[in-house]
Fold this protein.
Amino acid sequence: MRSPQVKQPRSRSLRLFSCAVIGAAVGLSGCSLFKPSVLQRGSLVEPDDYNKLKTGQSTRTDVMDALGSPTAHATFDDNTWVYVSMTQVLAPISFPRIRKQEAVVLTFDQDGILHNMRVLHKNDARYVSMASGSTPTPGTKINVMQQILGNVGRYNPLSQMSSTYGGSTGPMNSMNGGPGHGGQGNSLP
C-alpha cells in the first residue's frame, strides 16, 4: 500500500501554484483600473478622408460619401458644414485631457461644389473666459408709475362673496371664471 504522505506534498504544491497564478491574474487585472481610457467624440474624421476632397471639383455627395453627415451646419448658412472630432483621455484621479481635437470646415457654393476647406486643430482654439458682473433682465425693475398702473383692475370687491358672481369663481379660483362674468369665461354678452 502507498502511504498518503507521498500524495500530500504534490497536492500542496499544486494548491500553492494555483493560488499564485490566481493572485497574479487578480493583481494584473487591477492594473487596468489605473490605465487611462481613451474616448473618441464627434465624427471620426481622418486626414486620409478629407484629403480626397478637391476644392472646385468635389460635390456635396462626394463629401457625404467620404466623411458622412456633418456634425453641424452653420447657423444661418446651409452651405457651410462642420465636422468636429476630439480624442479625450480619462485618467483616474485627474481631470480629463484633450489629446487631439480637429474641426474640418467645408464651404460650398450655390451649385453644391466645394469652395473652401479649412482644418482647425487644438492650437487654433480660442479660449473664452466668463464675463464678470451680471446680465440685466428687462422688466425686473419698475418705477412708481408702473406700480400704480399695474394694480389697476386687480381689486375685485366681489371676490369675498360666495355667490355666482364672486367667491369660488373669482380670478384665482377657477379656470374659466373671471371678475364680473359669473363664471362664463371671458365672453362678452
